[in-house]
Amino acid sequence: MVVYVSFLFHIYQPPGQIPSIVKRIADESYRPLIETIKKFEVAKFNLNINGILTEQLNDYGLSDVINGLAELSENGKIEFTNSAKYHAILPLIPKPEILRQIRLNQETNHKFFGSTFKPRGFFPPELAIDDQIFPPIADTGHEWVIASGIANQEATFPTDYFQITHNDLAVVYRDDIISNEISFKKLSGESFIDRVQYLGKNKDYYVIIAQDGETYGHHMKEAFEHFLHPLLRKLEKTEEVKLATISELLERFTTRSEAHPRPSSWSTTSEDIEYGVAYPLWYHPDNIVHVLQHRIMMRILSMVINARSANLSPQGKKYWEIARTMADRGLHSCQQWWASRRPWFSPNMILNGLDQLRKSAINSSLAIKSSHANDHLKESYAYSLEIVLDLQKQIISLLFE
């Protein structure tokens, strides 16, 4: 009997992250992770890197991290996954925007990683899923998508088979309990092997661990020394637990059932499910800031999309391109996460997101104003801009309560 374990490390920094912070995290986490994977023969992991972080690594003089990851992929030590470039919570945005974020991520990472970036699987930011995100993921050529264990509605956790959607997309679930035990320092590298052998079955099964990659060395300074290195050393001496990529698991475990995952994220609790809140850190109906942020996002997406189909002048097209880029960036999840007060709260992170969205609204309006649009359309955009600015004023006022 063998337990196959897949680790998925997710690394990401928000648009506009301070360069010094990205450089510090590269020193504390990204570079040590690359060196660890190179050092241990047994090391084999899944890795998700959102395109916005890939660009930051390039722009901030950290191309050695990009090259290191590309080398690991080329040597079969890591398997890249695809994602949404700007880390939007996909169930909270329209389907065309989901597709756009996926394609932008694919284009960006392929630009920097080249042919080594060939993802078969998909990592939805924060493991936030619902039924509407599956068609865009399947339509862009992915074979599988990962979800949080709480999304699994089957009575028996699928440890030796997979579920599949109606469009042939395999759904795999992380083990929430073990993943969190590692992240919250409740499990050591030495004890991990005993922990994953919890089923006591006489046949092979698998366990999937998914975590923020920054957990190692940045959030948990001792995570390499106390968990990952001891674990890899121990795995080199055992045949009972083996590392594998998630795609390799799909090739090994072929039995599948129909997938009906519940809307959720990796921060959703059973209490949230009972209350009917799928994404509590990004859209909680009792959190007025979340509600206002969402209204702003939807209003701005409407402005950007409709402006594109207008008869724009050359100058108007330039304004629209800025509006489109700022809307893409402004959809990132961090501004909502920092407004959750569970327990995290940061007025500055909220304001950073609002600034990107405000620039998108202003440039959308300028695109229409400087073009050959009729007066009614210009008035409509002026009115929408007033709404956006008013909603932002309401959020700012709430920050002082």
Please write the CATH class name of the largest domain.
Alpha Beta
Biggest sheet descriptor = 10 strands, mixed
Number of strands: 10
Given as residue ranges, the uncertain stretches (5+ residues, pLDDT < 50) are: none
* CATH architecture label name of the largest domain: Alpha-Beta Barrel
The value of Rg in angstroms is: 22 Å
Helix and strand run: EHEHHEHEHEEEHHEHEHEHHHHHH
- The averaged pLDDT comes out at 95
Q: What is the end-to-end distance?
A: 58 Å
Amount of helix: 40-55%
Determine the strand fraction and express it as a percent band: 5-15%
Shape: globular
The CATH topology label of the largest domain is 7-stranded beta/alpha barrel
Count structural domains: 2
Structural class: alpha/beta
Counting H and I runs of at least 4 residues, what is the number of helices?
15
List keywords for this structure.
401 residues; 10 strands; alpha/beta; ten-stranded mixed sheet; globular; 15 helices; 2 domains; single chain; 7-stranded beta/alpha barrel
Describe this structure in words.
49% of the residues lie in helices and 11% in strands. With 401 residues, the chain is an alpha/beta fold. Strands 1, 2, 3, 4, 5, 6, 7, 8, 9 and 10 form a 10-stranded mixed sheet that branches. 48% of the residues are buried.
